[in-house]
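cache lookup: miss for this entity combination. No prior model stored, computing from scratch. Input as submitted by user K.M.:
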Amino acid sequence: MLLILSLENKGYGMEEKTLLEIKDLEIQFEVDGDVIRAVNGVSISLKAGETLGLVGETGAGKTTTALAAMHLVPDPPGIIRNGTILLNGRDVMKLTSKELEKIRGKEISMIFQDPMTSLNPVFTVGQQIAESIRYHEGLNREEALKKAGEVLEMVGIPASRANEYPHQFSGGMRQRVVIAIALACSPQVLIADEPTTALDVTIQAQVLELMRELKDRQQMAMIMITHDLGIVAEICDKVAVMYAGRIIEEGTLEEVFNHTLHPYTEGLFNSLPDVRNRKAKLKPITGLMPDPANLPEGCAFAPRCSYATEACRKIQPPLIERRNGHFVACAAYEDPSFHIERKEKA
Amino acid sequence: MSDKILEVEHLKKYFKTPRGMLHAVDDVSFSIERGKTLGVVGESGCGKSTTGRAILRLIEPSSGTVRFEGKDITSLSSREMRKMRKDMQIIFQDPFSSLDPRKTVNQIISEPIIGNKLIRDKNKLEERVLELMDTVGLAERLINTYPHELDGGRRQRIGIARALAIEPKFIVCDEPVSALDVSIQAQILNLLQELQQNLGLTYMFVTHDLAVVNHFSDDIAVMYLGQIVEKAPSEELFEHPLHPYTQALLSAIPVAEAGKKMERILLQGEISSPIDPQDECRFAKRCNRKCEECAKGCPSLREVRPGHFVACHLAEAE
């Protein structure tokens, strides 16, 4: 009952429509004369109801890509060198800041990583949720606060706590508040940047369950940014693995997890301790991610890759479809007999 | 006969707060055998790090005894304790804040060696530092760099080298990999395991990551609100978890496999306040199996299967 007001099924009946389309995005940061190449040609498309897992390690460019989708990359030092970002068919980069204000929170919304710093300590959580409701839905203060209470209930916090300040909540509760703010106006696209990294596992399980429910109910499209492959398996339909500012493997969850193609993705899986086989030795990826201010000429992963050849170090491999709907950027697959060591799962 | 390097009995650490006594560690007892690893898991605020620190007396325990190689170290003077710490070291969680930013790698690693007057000769000291850097996989050329020039994985290696510098027998690893990316995390875990095999180290491995603890430990103790609620050999614990909290914890681990929808036990609510807890099962408020018994008193740890201890009124050797 508490959902009737806030959550009409926004996306209902438009499953096939592409909501967010990012093409050939290139973002650089210029700091002290160095050019940091954070994002180097990323394309993403997202339909209503879809959840894309954007996976990669620190510095892979996941968050920068997501910030660009909301036109939030700080400029300076960030410069969008190339690419288009279409949200509901409109180019986000050509919108004025007034127009951007209208779509942020309403058409596209973001959950930030750290619930401790993304809330304002001097406003009650109710006020913070009501802010975007007032703006987007034209309700007055009282109506907006009332609706904020309902949104709080939706994420499992009693509406009576709307008058409390962020410091009065625990970490898990604060993250729910952040989720409530992002969802207050039922956005069509939600970007969740490591929404559970700061939380304990049992609380993480609660939050993931909540996000899954909300996603199903609202047919919301979602980009889940995470480094945790377990969370991806839990909640995503599609996966894109990023390395040094590029997507190096992309496909459905089933394809990427069970028919892994890229050596880096293989390395990520091999680095995870297996809960069921505790004796299995971890096989870490040797070395480190290259400095984004000084990327190698060829494939950025080649220096760490056990399959790499001379050619890999010279030519940047394009993202090519190697299986049905499964793309990989790896030159080794030019040889049809090539396969990685990781066993395919039936 | 088992060779227990560390025995902890009825360890308590209470903190005074304006709202009452905070029971951070509340009557914890366990022992670790030489050369083995005890994993201590639990969520934030359960007292796992405080336990690790109280054992080394980096914070003074409120009561209880800690015996290291049979010797009660809780009554030692700070001078004697400093000598004791030559055998007991700690690796901290955050490789960004646990290293002095104004010291070079060389200075950081040699500090404990100089402090304990192990090597006085300058050339020999540098030799030793280089040897340690080699052991933990740090390139020689980094000897004069500062921590801020290095990434998290390398910084954590410095922390490990510093802990190893005075050849301890026992190391408390306080979430040593939680700040690191998975590929780097695996490198550090493998390193710690190799060191254990080569140097015969004993670890107390404190973490919130169950997959890591399972991979790494011989025995696991699960903590909740300052108490150990279950303790068993790793395999036993993962195959037959008996405490409702352990069961929920294990079911909450997201598994990196497609199409694998786990049966989840979703806990209600969050950890309650550790300030002046009442004499009842501390987990009862979130427990899906609580009964009248649970409100009557805090269950104590009892052995229900060989080597498998659990603190729950309902747990039977299923």
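stored under new cache key. Chain A touches chain B through 47 residues (CB under 8 Å).
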